Amino acid sequence: MCARELANRIEESTKPGHVIVSTVNPGLVNTQIARNLGYWYGKFLSIVFMLVARTPEEGSRTIVLAAEGGEKTHGQYLNDGQVGVPSDFVTSEEGLRVQKQLWVELMLKLDAIYPGIADVI
């Protein structure tokens, strides 16, 4: 929801330049992420990954879609190599209210760390 609000803010911005904002889910990808988890846990996860995870090439397709998608992916959730359909809640009046509230709360926290961050957008 924060990415959707960021995309909306960028569209409304009068600042020069344009950035495409997308939320990307490559899915469970078979990588070496479990290599330092200990012998048995690492073996267990490697078997799970082998059975149900995507290859790195398959997982990267959604990331490539985000990189090359342009306007059609702006503000969208990308999943399984395609633009996903937002849930009914996300597009509802309540969802939009929560989206804006999340944005305000995030900006307050970020502004405490990096004053003026909201002005960059």
Automatic annotation (TrEMBL):
Quote the InterPro entries the UniProt record gives.
NAD(P)-bd_dom_sf (IPR036291)
Q: Which domain of life is it from?
A: Eukaryota
The name under which this protein is listed is Uncharacterized protein
